[in-house]
Amino acid sequence: MKYKKTQVIIVGSGPAGLLLSQLLHNEGISSIIVDRQSRERIEGRVRAGVLEWGSVQALEEAKIGERMHREGLPHEGFDLAFDGEFHRIDVGGLTGKKVMVYGQTELTMDLIAQRLEQGCEIVFSAGDVQPTDVTSNTPKIQYTKDGETVEIEGDYITGCDGFHGVCRQTIPSTVLKTYEKVYPFGWLGVLVEKPPVSDELIYANHQRGFALCSMRSKTRSRYYIQCPLTDNVEDWSDQRFWDELSLRVGPDVARNLETGDSFEKSIAPLRSFVAEPMRYGNMFLAGDAAHIVPPTGAKGLNLAIADIRVLSRGLIEHYKKSNNHYLERYSDICLKRVWKVERFSWFMSTMLHQFPEFSAFEKRMQRAEFDHIQGSETASSSIAENYVGLPLEM
Ligand code: FAS
Ligand code: PHB
């Protein structure tokens, strides 16, 4: 057995774990990150695309925002579409704020590169990661690497290991309470090296199903269509995807669609999920390890970053000022915001997708939601303030 020590053990090298490590490093607090996947697998994931301005500021504070500002696209609005009728949510005009279109893939690569350059230990391809003694003052994790078993001892463990991670499972079922809603469809997403069909994002409800037109840059587009959970990527040729997307966004948009060979194609399931509490002993859960939202509200990554803004403040105040206020309040502070963001993501998903079980009345309720938003600046403002990001009340 090989032994290591650090102040904060971080399980998971996704955006949550990496950002936490960076914010702690900037304050001279040590951490070791352990991930079960290889660096290539982690950097090859295609996920989120929209950052709230609060997330942008957190990345600036972490001194990791340079490429984001150079290559990212600030946006001040997006379109909602219903059977070919459009309504722009004027995010800038209604809130005075904007969002940043910048791929999670790029953010993860920026963070990994900087963390390694600054000498952070990131253990990739770690096997059998297992937290132990999480309620003691010396919580540990064990893992295997290159045939050797390693134990890391720290003051705290942060479970940034995503929905399928190991840390949440360490919390006894007598303590942990979970809430879940699984949606009866998935999102089929493609990446294509073609200019986006529009300058801003389009979220479309069509009788054939939901569609989203997004982007990664002015030359790289990201598109999604709702698909049955029984579908496989192999069921969808590029041509079939482009034909379906064109039908769902309508002729006025489709005529400007530049199609081509996709270089990434994947299907993601949709779920709403919350685990309470987000702390057990000296182990904290952050990001997808604690909550999942359907991507319709562009919130998953932003919620993870918000958790880390609270957790990093708590750990820094603990180590620098012996003040445990934010660590003791971490779960309550985060969950208050998590549930409001869960609501928004559920609301957007319910309004914009075709649900097989919906009655004619419920379908009319979806249309009525759109008509209400279209006809009410107050309703549009509510959508806008959630989309740019609710204030982080600490
Ligand atoms: P992550 O899942 O990113 O990272 C967790 C890390 O922990 C991974 O690297 C994993 O390898 C590691 N890990 C897991 N188990 C482990 C173990 N036992 N030991 C060690 N390490 C372990 N959000 C949006 O806002 N918009 C989107 O369009 C969007 N699309 C998504 C598509 C998919 C398929 C998925 C899964 C998520 C999507 N999300 C989207 C949400 C996503 O962006 C997450 O919110 C974001 O990745 C959260 O970051 P982390 O909490 O760091 O978790
Ligand atoms: C994306 O570009 O991947 C994206 C954008 C907005 C969403 C979901 C995904 O709501």
Explained architecture:
The chain has 394 residues and is of the alpha/beta class. The protein has a domain at 2-76 and 98-179 and 271-353: 3-Layer(bba) Sandwich (FAD/NAD(P)-binding domain), CATH 3.50.50.60. 38% of the residues lie in helices and 29% in strands. The protein is built from 13 helices and 21 strands. It has helices spanning 15-25, 39-43, 53-61, 66-71, 91-95, 104-117, 167-170, 238-249, 251-254, 300-321, 325-352, 360-375, 377-388; strands at 2-5, 8-11, 31-34, 50-52, 73-75, 78-82, 85-89, 99-101, 121-123, 127-132, 140-145, 148-153, 156-159, 177-192, 202-206, 209-215, 221-227, 262-276, 279-280, 283-285, 291-292. The strands form four sheets. It has an eight-stranded mixed beta sheet with strand order 7-6-15-16-17-14-18-21. A hairpin with a 5-residue loop joins β16 (209-215) and β17. The model has no long low-confidence stretch (mean pLDDT 97). P-hydroxybenzoic acid binds next to loops.
Write the layout of secondary structure elements.
Elements: E1 2-5, E2 8-11, H1 15-25, E3 31-34, H2 39-43, E4 50-52, H3 53-61, H4 66-71, E5 73-75, E6 78-82, E7 85-89, H5 91-95, E8 99-101, H6 104-117, E9 121-123, E10 127-132, E11 140-145, E12 148-153, E13 156-159, H7 167-170, E14 177-192, E15 202-206, E16 209-215, E17 221-227, H8 238-249, H9 251-254, E18 262-276, E19 279-280, E20 283-285, E21 291-292, H10 300-321, H11 325-352, H12 360-375, H13 377-388
Parallel strand pairs: 1-12, 2-3, 2-13, 3-9, 6-15, 13-20
Antiparallel strand pairs: 4-8, 5-8, 6-7, 10-11, 11-12, 14-17, 14-18, 15-16, 16-17, 18-21, 19-20
